[in-house]
Amino acid sequence: MNAALALTLMAFWRTRARAARLNTRARLLEWQSRQLQAFLRKTAPKAAAFAHLSGHPLADFPEMDKADLMNAFASFNSASIAADAAWQAFEASGQIGPYAVGASTGTSGNRGLYLVSDAERYLWLGTLLAKALPGLLTARHRVAVMLPRGSRLYDAANESGRLSLKFFDLTAGLAPQLAEVAAFRPDVLVAPPHALLALARADLPLAPREVFSGAEVLDPADRAEIERRFDLTVREIYMATEGLFGVACAHGTLHLCEDCVAFEWQAAGGLSAPLITDFTRRTQMMIRYRMNDLLRLSDTPCACGSPLQAVSEIVGRRDDAFVFPGPVTVTPDVIRNAVVGAARTITDFRAVQTGPATVMLTLPPHLVTDLPAAQRALKDLFARLGAAPEVRASTAPLAPPCGGKLRRVIRNREAGP
Questions:
Q1: 3-317 adopts what CATH topology?
Q2: Closest CA to 147 of 414, 410, 416, 406
Q3: Domain boundary assignment for the chain
Q4: Residues 271, 285: contact at Cβ < 8 Å?
Q5: Whole-number Å distance between alpha carbons of 339 and 224
Q6: What whole-number distance in Å separates Cα of residue 196 and Cα of residue 198?
Q7: Tens digit of pLDDT for each residue in 37-65?
Q8: CA 361 – CA 352 distance, rounded (Å)
Q9: Equal fold, 3-317 vs 321-415
Q10: How many whole angstroms from its chain centre is CA 387?
Q11: Cβ proximity of 390 and 358 under 8 Å
């Protein structure tokens, strides 16, 4: 057995065993606390930024975000690798010494780097597989992954010998690759919602047994259309440059990976924004890292019985909430619900805050008759919340993103803080 397969299987079985053993919320949190304390005492101080905090409780560690990480990249990884060297490696081979180098897509305007060791890649893969494909050892899988760019993390899948994985790079365009995906005959499909929608609408012989959505917000209307086409439950994977944060169970409920990550929560307009601490990483430390996501947590236990926190919805990005003078903040889910609620025919749109008190609404040309109702719905929404921005409305073709992420609600940086 090669090292890749051995490490992947070890992580797979450990994840499965933990799920069986930590079967109540109390047991899970007690175990997590011990793991977190050991990580903060032994592992975190190996990065210069945290060397002085060995043995301190999590609350003593400073909050950090992507700007902090990139401004002092070398101090946040145990190998003391500087950002310039990591960028050079990323553009060349994607490898620097024993570490793989990856980068985010830069949807928010600035790209982030990450470093992982080979061991971490295989452990990541085993954890993901245990949560997403628990029957891996009884059936081999053909997995099609459609994302804006590849990663050494996905290379680990083919190296494990248990999967046949093919990566489809969305930066090369979506339409030309749809037939290639079908020709690969995947039984597992992993893609952003806009790519899953394109596959669902194409007349192609596709019959996956599992469909996973990731990298973008999965709108309810999109979910319903994809599920009708493939006759199955779409399962979400909540993953970013910063790590693996959640995987949906067979019931379709997204559960946070609290067996790998400790979550702290900040209130944000009735939603929750996470601070994450990944206590499994050994190379790049992510401690009290402020994510840009807005989540609606569930108070209802899932029928699967998992004690892992359930998430009702990943709403969108915190920096895409509209902010008007007052201040009045309107989160992406509220804006989306107002637009699609104006007419049942509206399944796609763009709402962009272009200035401190200006919003641009765009619908596809075939929905021109729905434009007045959607414009009025936004104006009424903002008025109810105490804001009075100018809402301009027009129609235009809404092409899927090429290499980026689909965002239907966007706040331009020019619109203010």
A1: Rossmann fold (3.40.50)
A2: 406
A3: 3-317, 321-415
A4: no
A5: 17
A6: 5
A7: 999 999 999 999 999 999 899 999 999 99
A8: 7
A9: no
A10: 31
A11: yes
284: which strand partners? Answer: 77
pTM of the entire predicted model: 0.89
Closest alpha carbon to 293 in 308, 323, 313: 313
- Report how far residue 37's alpha carbon sits from residue 56's, in angstroms, rounded to the nearest whole number: 9
Q: Strand 99-103 relative to strand 243-248: parallel, antiparallel, unpaired?
A: unpaired
Copy the structure tokens of residue 99: 């570490």
How confident is the model over 138-177, as pLDDT tens digits?
A: 667 888 988 876 555 555 555 555 678 888 888 778 888 8
Structure tokens at 332: 């992406």
Q: SS3 sequence, the chain?
A: CCHHHHHHHHHHHHHHHHHHHCCCHHHHHHHHHHHHHHHHHHHHHHCHHHHHHCCCCHHHCCCECHHHHHHCHHHHECCCCCHHHHHHHHHCCCEECCEEEEECCCCCCCCCEEEEEHHHHHHHHHHHHHHHCCCHHHCCEEEEEEECCCCHHHHHHHHHCCEEEEEEEHHHCCHHHHHHHHHHCCCEEEECHHHHHHHHHCCCCCCCCEEEEECCCCCHHHHHHHHHHHCCCCEEEEEECCEEEEEECCCCCEEECCCCEEEEEEEECCEEEEEEEECCCCCECCCCEECCEEEEECCCCCCCCCCCCEEEEEEEEHHHCEEECCCEEECHHHHHHHHHCCCCCCCCCEEEEEECCEEEEEECHHHHHHHHHHHHHHHHHHHHCCCCCEEEEEECCCCCCCCCCCCCEEECHHHCC
Fold of 321-415: Alpha-Beta Plaits (3.30.70)
Using CA atoms, how far apart are residues 366 and 148, in angstroms rounded to an integer?
28
Distance separating alpha carbons of residues 258 and 60, to the nearest angstrom? 21
How many other β-carbons are positioned within 10 Å of the β-carbon of residue 154? 20
pLDDT at 136 over 90: no
Residue 346: what pLDDT?
Answer: 93
CA distance 258 to 129: 16
